[in-house]
Amino acid sequence: MSRFLALLLCVPLWAFAQAPAQPEAATGFAPQASVSGKRYLAATAHADGTAAARDILRQGGSAVDAAIAAQLVLNLVEPQSSGIGGGGFLLHWDGRTRELSAYDGRETAPAAASPERFRGAAFRDVVASGKSIGVPGLLAMLAEAHRRHGRLPWARLFEPAIRLAEAGFSVSPRLHALLRDDRYLRDDANARRLYYQADGAPLAVGAVLRNPAFADTLRSIALAGPAALYRGPLGVAVAAAARAAGGDLDAADLARYRARQRTPVCGNYRVWRICGMPPPSSGGVTTLQLLGILERSAFDRAPALSAQAVHWFSEAGRLAYADRNRYLGDPDYVAIPQDDMLAPGYLDRRAGLLSARKSIVTAWPGDFPAGRSRDDDDAPERPSTTHLSIVDAEGNAVALTSSIEDAFGSRKMAGGFLLNNQLTDFAFAPDAGGRLVANRVEAGKRPLSSMAPTMVFDRRGRLVAVLGSPGGPRIINYVAQTLVALLDWNMAPEAALALPHFGSRNGPTEIERERAPEGWQNELEALGHTVATVDMTSGLQIVVRQGDLWLAAVDPRREGAAAGE
Ligand code: GLU
Q1: Among 232, 264, 394, 501, which has the highest number of CB atoms less than 10 A from its own CB?
Q2: Ligand 1 test: best mutation among 133, 451, 474, most atoms within 8 Å of CB?
């Protein structure tokens, strides 16, 4: 047995876990050590973001306070991923009242947007155009979460990011590589001045990057609150940048924006209760469908990490993504049969379609009266988006996934930050097969997301895990796979994140390049799968309970860091 396998066979974490399964083969990353905390713990996609969260937690800040401070720093140091020019989804667990809340800070389409907006276009035609820029929702959502769950003053949460924007931060290898390879970012004069040298070369790894315009932006929001963006000169600058690039966002769209509180979507998986984000993200519903179908299959009899386990997991994914692609969208615009999609009888019927010996290859969506039309979504994974998981000393927790969509979003800057291209998450054709598509563009509507901030509770209702990831539509597979590694295979968090990825979005069965064990491909093909070997650059940040301790692990595929005390 390799040293890696020995590491995987760890002590079970879970109060109700069965005996650990024996992984047959694993060639994933070498697990990085997890970080533990007795009182609090933060795991974010960058060491500077994690340091900001830890400082705020040390000052007695709540999980939401720490998440806000970390997010503002991530906006600065991971400009490719997320920020106040974009949107996100936040789950909050109140350790005292035991109340779970879900916040929707998804971008909206401007009032001028019509269903024809992207018809006939390709992603590359519109990604760097003002047409892809939606009304940013992240800041409004963070302010709402702070109003309800914050403890420290709003302005204090801006101090770490302001300090770092002024003093400068060190360009990371990942940021450098993304700057180097980007085709559009140099075209924006502000971005070129900030991120590139005079000859067009990207700032070197380790170069100190100062962003005084962003420091000014942060100062104005620290002082005036989100109104500085939604009703102030900053908003005017955002709208002007979008319009200069052919967009139609205006100040009235910003003034109209509201973050929404939604009812979290929860379901049972074996002895656990798993909760996530409802539409307009597909994250919660599709993760729960996938797991619900898996629980009803013979997955639990397949050895951990065997090709048979990958077979059941990707078959369940096919069925879940088929429903996702047809039925999910913005619930304020389309009727979503959410309860029917998660009903035990329906999941029984869906699981009954599967066989141990043969792949279903392509799943058809279930037949619900509310359904609109077929809408395939094979959007690729982007090297952007960020996820953070935090627990505080009172037992409150935050799972926050946020995004500006593609790397560097629309590549348009205002106020020292990048604006999203999130409207490209809408279906480009508003109709298919003569019927309207649920995720078509409409004025004021939120595009369907896959972001899946997730929390797990045990039989006694105790919070036992906080997680999420970037990865476009693959996010759901990453989160579901991590859940089975933790819950079914009893893996330590760092070992779960080091596993090779697998899953299907109702296209081919995808397995991770250079990580998937030899043998998977042949065995899966023998079951009728078409196998695609691809890069699967998740960015999971997870926190799990182990007895009286919290343990955090960060994804070895990106630059995350965890810290706790
Ligand atoms: N725009 C994507 C979503 O909302 C996230 C982008 C990514 O993670 O690649 O689902």
Answers
A1: 501
A2: 451
